[in-house]
Design brief:
- This protein is of the alpha/beta class.
- The chain has one domain (46-210).
- The protein contains six helices and twelve strands.
- The chain has helices spanning 27-35, 68-74, 88-102, 109-118, 125-138, 162-169; strands spanning 8-10, 16-17, 20-24, 54-55, 61-62, 80-85, 106-108, 145-148, 175-184, 187-190, 199-201, 208-210.
- The strands form two sheets. Strands 4, 5, 6, 7, 8, 9, 10, 11 and 12 form a nine-stranded mixed beta sheet that branches.
- β10 and β11 form a beta hairpin.
- The radius of gyration is 16 Å and the shape is globular.
- The two termini are 19 Å apart.
């Protein structure tokens, strides 16, 4: 698997599958996560049969051709659209394309959250991570902004619900989130089943655009 740009390989616990190293999200995130004895997510393999449709928060399915900007405009209580694909490189390219085409700023989450945690005692890191993420996104209000590098939010020791954090932030700042995972049959997944940080949400409550 080709290494995603801006990523670093890590062979930490939970990141070996069939002898292959996983890819960590960013150098900054890697440094923080590995200091806790585990790594942030994420070199993700392609999955066959990835859905090529999107869903609104009501569960209504819409054509993949509907622009993300329109999905965002139609979003309900949470002004958030997830752009989902299991391959980090593919996701980065599409996020960059959307940002350029719409004139939206890109906000990498991992580096800012990692910087905030480096000077924070371990016991206080869960709250500090959530505050740092929300402050970063609130500073970009009203948006929209394209959020990338979200993997540090899935570090188990932080005990966060990353989707809930992003949904709440979207009440202030409209978000398009590059989500490393899949969506199908009403279930949103982060990473792949064999990954140590794999998680599922059965009702994400926000529109999800799954890249073909």
């Amino acid at each position: 698997m080709a290494q995603a740009q801006g990523s670093a390989y890590c062979n930490g616990p939970g990141h070996r599958a069939a002898g292959r190293p996983r890819v960590c999200a960013t150098a900054a995130s890697w440094a923080v996560a590995c200091s806790w004895g585990s790594t942030t997510a994420v070199g993700l393999r392609s999955l066959a049969g990835l859905s090529s449709s999107s869903t609104k928060s009501s569960g209504e399915t819409v054509a993949m051709g509907e622009p993300v900007a329109e999905l965002l405009a139609q979003a309900g209580f949470y002004r958030c659209v997830l752009l989902a694909h299991p391959e980090v490189a593919r996701l980065r390219r599409e996020a960059a394309r959307l940002a350029l085409a719409n004139g939206w700023p890109t906000v990498p989450i991992g580096p800012s959250v990692a910087a905030a945690l480096l000077a924070t005692p371990t016991s206080e890191r869960p709250g500090a991570a959530e505050r740092a993420c929300r402050a970063l996104l609130e500073a970009a209000r009203p948006g929209p902004v394209v959020c990338t590098d979200i993997d540090l939010l899935f570090e188990p020791s932080l005990r966060l619900d990353p989707l809930a954090v992003l949904r709440e932030a979207s009440r202030v700042t409209a978000l398009v989130v590059a989500w490393p995972g899949t969506f199908g049959d009403g279930r949103l997944a982060y990473a792949v089943p064999e990954h140590a940080h794999y998680r599922i949400w059965r009702n994400p409550e926000v529109p999800v655009s799954a890249l073909a």
